[in-house]
Amino acid sequence: MTTYTAAPNDSATIIIVEDDPDAARFVQRALDRPGFEVVSFSRPDEALEALKRLPCSLLLSDVRLPGMTGLDLLQRARRYDPQLPVVLMTAFATLEDATFALRNGADDYLLKPLNAKVLIDTVSKVLAKCRAARDRVLAIGAHPDDVEIGVGATLIDHVDRGDHVTILTLSRGESGGAVSDRIEEAERAAELLGAALILGDLPDTRIWTNGPTVDLIEDVVRGLAPMIVYTHSLHDVHQDHRAVHQASLVACRAMPQVFSYQSPSATVDFAPRRFVPVDATIDRKLAAIAAYRSQTTKCSYLADDLLRATARYWGRFVESNHAEPLEIVRQQVLTRSNSESTQRTIDLREVDGYVLSSS
Ligand SMILES: [Zn+2]
């Protein structure tokens, strides 16, 4: 097995949403310290726009805002990043307000008037807790380049947010060219994404749905314990892709979040319900795919304009110029605010093509 590991990204970007200029200035000054990058907005709609483009580590929002509440903002922000840590600030200091915020998915709350030390301690504590909870992502593909095509930009976004991303590619793609070239290209592409790479050695075009495929994925899952898994869709004409989907579901049966991505061989039955905005990362995705030089000259599905147009099309579902589409196999949310080890399944409600979490 070949493994490549990228350097971790340690700085935390904090988006503040506060319409009171004095309070906003206070928070900005308090958090003006090494390790924090602070971006401040007075309007929640502007913050939502920024969340599509910025890799945000934590959202710190007032509860009372013009146009929507802090809880509305929390729910809409989690459409883009279901794991986004959120701390709410409230001037209406009752225990009921605080427990209401926690019950509705906030990681913590701050009472106004704010105290700088409490603010810094709370933000640091939530970031530390969420980093530990969110830092493992596994993307599984049958062949070199599958993962990059399906979720390359989403993975870059994870890396930018400080997550640890591992790509598991089950075969070395010997049907598509010299194995040595394909390994080198896969390593280069993973390096460009900032991901670790684990290369299996299952037979290209003859990957089984069970046995060795499940064993290999289970081994990796046992070692990594990923919070989020991306794998092939069942709605795909390629037999290896379908086999990897089925094996992934067995091997990842205990993993809290599992999503299926789109391949060039997807069928019309591919039915995504989650859309990751990738305007900020699509160029880097295309750069990673360009690393597959032995394929880009002969495979029309790797053409830049097709990959960009595909993302451009799916962007309309998430009010973004470009998006990567995902089918939802399983989506559970950790209630970190109540207990680090408590996990509950949330209901999923589809609204206009989005999926909202609700308790
Ligand atoms: Zn493939």
Written overview of the protein:
The chain has about 350 residues and is of the alpha/beta class. Helices cover about 40% and strands about 25% of the residues. It is built from twelve helices and 16 strands. It has helices at about 20-30, 45-55, 70-80, 95-105, 115-135, 145-160, 180-195, 210-225, 240-250, 280-290, 295, 305-315, and strands at about 5, 10-15, 35-40, 60, 85-90, 110, 135-140, 165-170, 195-200, 230, 255-260, 275, 325-335, 345, 345-350, 355-359. Strands 1, 7, 8, 9, 10, 11, 12, 13 and 14 form a nine-stranded mixed β-sheet that branches. It has a five-stranded parallel β-sheet with strand order 3-2-4-5-6, sandwiched between helices. Strand 8, helix 7 (about 180-195) and strand 9 form a beta-alpha-beta unit. Zinc ion binds near residues 143, 146, 238 and 241.
Summary, kept brief:
By secondary structure, the protein is α/β, with parallel strands linked by helices.
Number of helices: 12
* CA-based gyration radius: 21 Å
Which class of secondary structure composition applies to the elements? Answer: alpha/beta
For this structure, the CATH topology of the largest domain is Rossmann fold
Q: Which CATH-level-2 architecture of the largest domain? A: 3-Layer(aba) Sandwich
Main beta-sheet strand count, sense and barrel state: 9 strands, mixed
Task: Give the name of the CATH superfamily of the largest domain.
Answer: LmbE-like
Mean pLDDT: 86
Strand content: 15-25%
Cα shape = elongated
As for the number of domains, it is 2
